[in-house]
Every structure is written in C-alpha cells, then in structure tokens.
Amino acid sequence: MQEATYFRRGFGLKPAIEGLLSADYHSQLIERLRAGGYALTVGPLSIRLAREFGFCYGVDRAVEYAYETRTKFPERRLFLVGEIIHNPHVNSKLAAMGVTFLHRGADDAFDFHELTAGDVVILPAFGVTLQDFARLKEIGCVVVDTTCGSVLNVWKRVESYARDGFTALIHGKYWHEETRATASQAMKYPGGRYLVVLDMAEVRLICDWIEHGAGDAAALQERFARATSPGFDFTRDLERVGVANQTTMLSSESLAIAEEVRRAMERRFGAAEAAAHVRSFDTICSATQERQDAVLQLLADAPDLLLVVGGYNSSNTAHLAELALSRGVRTYHLEDSSCIELESGGLRHRPIGADREETATGWLDGVRKLAVTAGASTPNNKIGETIARVCAVAGLGDELRAML
After folding, report:
1. Among residues 52, 68, 178, 253, which one is catalytic?
2. Is there a domain that residue 13 lies in?
3. What φ, ψ does residue 113 adopt, rounded to 5°?
C-alpha cells in the first residue's frame, strides 16, 4: 500500500504528548490569575490579566500537531518551513526535538535542496505559498499541514475574487508569511491579481487612483513594486476590487479600509453600480478580535501600565500594543521576562515600528495598577514568568511566591 504523504487532521496522539506540552508551556501563576477572575493583588500592586490572551486555537493546534509529528515519525528527518509560529521559545523547543528549520535564500525562496521523499515537512500555522506547496509535492516528501483555519477562510475569499475577475486588495504586510501565502491564492486563475496595502495611508493613494481613474502610474508601481502580482497594471487592475486581510491586523483598520474602498468606487461609478466593482468580507480571525477586545476591556479600568508579551516579529502581538498606545495608555511590548533586568531594573522593549530594542528606566515608578496581555503565539509560562519578574523588581517576589 502506498504511504500517505499529506496530513492535516492530526495523528490522534494528543494523550502521548500532553505531559510534554504541559511541562513546556504550563504556568501555575497564570492558573492562579484565572481562578481569581484574572486579577491578583500582591502588596500594593494590583495585577489584571486580559480575559483573552496567549495561545489561540490555531496556535494550539499547530504546536500540538508539530509535537505529534515528532512522535509519529521518530526516526525520520523532520523539517519546518519557516517558523511554526512567531515565538522564539516555541521554535527553540521544536529545534531541541530535532526539527530542522528551512529558511529563505538570497533569491527569497525557501531552500528545499536537501529534502528527499523520505523526509517529513511541517507547514506553519501561517501556511505556505502555492508555489512552495507545489515544490514540496514534486519532491514527494510527507507534508504535515498546520495552516490555521482562519487563514484558510481568507484564502477562499481571495480565490473567489480571482475566479470572478476581481483584484484582491489585501490589508497586510507584504513580507509576512501569511500574506505571501494569501496573495498566492489569487494566482490560481489566469489573470489573477493582488495588491497588498499596509495601512490607511497607502489605501488612500489607491483610492485616489480608483476615484479619478488616472494619475502617476509609474510612482504607484514603484511604491508597490514588492506588493503587487507580476505584471500588475494600475490602469487595468483596479476596476474591480475584492478586499481581504492578513488575519492578525487591527480589525478596526481593516474594516475602515474596506469602507474607504467602497466609497471610492461609489464616487467613481455611482452608488448603483459600486456593488459590481467592490466586494469585502470581514476576515479578521475571531481570536485576533477577541484579544483586541480584551485589551480594550483592560483599558477601561485605567491601568497605570500595560505590558504586552510576545515575539517581536508577531504581528498580532504588536497590534495589541499599538491598540493600547492609540488609546493613550503607557504600553511596552517585550519579548519575554528576560527583558526585565533584575539588577538595573531596566525594561528592554521594542517600540511600535522600530527594528531594535530600547531600554526604559523608571518604568515601574508609581505603578499600582498593572495590566498584562500577550499575543496569540505566546505560551502561558512566558506570561507567568514576566509577571513574576515584575513582582521581583518591585520587591514583591517573596510575597508572590507565598501566594502560589
């Protein structure tokens, strides 16, 4: 009988890996916070944890599936396309289990040259492009697909746009793995087109072109050279547009972008005809929305400080910090507890839009109400360790330990 080479539904090995998952990611402190209504008072410090935080269903599934894969194929070489999720601790755990990470080469393509038909390759929660999937299929290796269901939902929208002759306008980061994979879905059909926009400022450039049907096409082509499908023509390819998004973007901005495009089409073609030229669906994943809503609930309690814990290259984590900052709340995005320096008391963090860390001093001065959240790729133990480190810097470490 021929061996199956594609798996998406797991191997039924969860009981065999539950102990390892718990050892790697469980936090007693987080469980204590949950049991206390997501709140804990340690001396003068009141700590509140967001009611939706950390691993979402899609991340849980991807991590569990990766652990199951190692158990299912103990003797096989095991590879991962990129990172399973954007969290360095989770990826380092997989590396310690013998998973080899595949990276992009100088040509910006993943290097599959050493793969053979006897190897097992895990696809990350973000998914991979149609081109990469086809290359893996051609090699004949076993493929374990952990692509998140919310991402697959966006792919279906983008594919339907291409099928019906609409250009996919994707709110996202053109360099992000998920957006690359999503954009590739538009190329399933002859004439499929996509355009990736980062923010409202870029959308307004596009909408100005849509509304007037003319302008400096060369300037737009240069601006969006890396964010458009091959051969994209601004004169031809913006007549009919379908709006989609990277699932981890700020939902309020994605919805505003869709509305901006709709209004531009109305001004160009009239209200009666606009529906024939624009389509949009809310494709923000529920976990992203729930975590953003939970941050707003935290802010309603007027905290002195919000800490957002998670990988710096995690889009959904960075957007939680961005959301809080937009509401005027002092906020720091830190990767993990090691960013809180015990000796100096400094806090290493990465400001929104920056490409390197900065160190804040006096960040805990006067803080009595501390709010904490984490992105969908942050394990519970890293959140708990961060809260414990805050208490240690505040001189409350012994008091916290006595409560656990």
Report:
1. 178
2. no
3. -65, -30
Would you give the distance in Å from CA 349 to the centre of its chain? Answer: 19
* 178 in catalytic set: yes
Tally of domains in the chain: 3
Name the residue among 199, 155, 157 with its Cα closest to residue 174: 199
In a domain, 30, yes or no: yes
pLDDT in 10s for each residue of the chain, 404 residues: 457 899 998 899 999 999 999 999 999 999 999 999 999 999 999 999 999 999 999 999 999 999 999 999 999 999 999 999 999 999 999 999 999 999 998 888 899 999 999 999 999 999 999 999 999 999 999 999 999 999 999 999 999 999 999 999 999 999 999 999 999 999 999 999 999 999 999 999 999 999 987 678 899 999 999 999 999 999 999 999 999 999 989 888 999 999 999 999 999 999 999 999 999 987 778 888 899 999 999 999 999 999 999 999 999 999 999 999 999 999 999 999 999 999 999 999 999 989 999 999 999 999 999 999 999 999 999 999 999 999 999 999 999 999 99
Q: Are 298 and 306 in contact (CB under 8 A)?
A: yes
- Based on the domain organization, do 160 and 133 belong to the same domain? no
In a domain, 6, yes or no: no
CB 76 within 8 A of CB 100: no
Task: Using DSSP, state whether 184 is helix, strand or coil.
Answer: helix
| Residue ranges making up the domain that contains 317 | 26-56+286-403
Question: Where does a domain end: 280, 312, 330?
Answer: 280
Domain boundary pick from 248, 280, 312:
280
Q: How far is CA 171 from CA 1, 258, 261, 351, in A?
A: 45, 9, 12, 22
One domain, residues 182 and 121: no
The answer, as to whether pTM is greater than 0.85, is: yes
Residue 350, domain CATH: 3.40.1010.20
Give domain status of residue 18, yes or no: no
CATH of the domain at 79: 3.40.50.11270
State the residue for tokens 């390759």: 121
**Contact yes or no for 70/97 (Cβ under 8 A):** yes
3-class DSSP assignment, residue 226: coil
Q: Is 23 helix (H, G, I), strand (E, B) or coil?
A: helix
DSSP class of residue 224 equals: T
